Please model this.
Amino acid sequence: MGAGTFSQIYIQVVFAVKGRNSLIKSDWEDELYKYITGIVQNKGQKMLAINGMPDHIHILISLKPSCCLSDLVREIKKSSNKFIMEKKFSRYSFSWQAGYGAFSYSHSALDNVIAYINNQKEHHRTKLFKEEYKDFLEKFQIEHKDDYLFEWIE
Model:
């Protein structure tokens, strides 16, 4: 019996609706979250938390080392985009913005991150997505130019 690979990688992924338009409606967001959870599970990964706001989404995934995060996010965006269009959820042309944020966590931080994601609606009563996102980048010491973050609509 050969030696196995044992690893647990926890990543929070954040991505936005194109132009940061508030197109994700409360009457169908749960269906969207279930669909995205299905994609993650079908790819052999584990969804730990998913939630968001009308203009962006947060997912916390337990990744296997063999999983390529960029491929997974591409698949989530592509498939969920198609799902939203086929279900005619949005009266407007829906698509996700290019790019995403990915932030890694230790096992001990998971409860806090899950609570944070589950409390998105409360959290955003006092903080805009733009502020939240910049806080992540600063907290994780990720170098960035504000111009390249997202297509912010002021």
About this structure: The helical segments are 29-42, 69-86, 110-118, 120-123, 129-139. The chain has a mean pLDDT of 90.
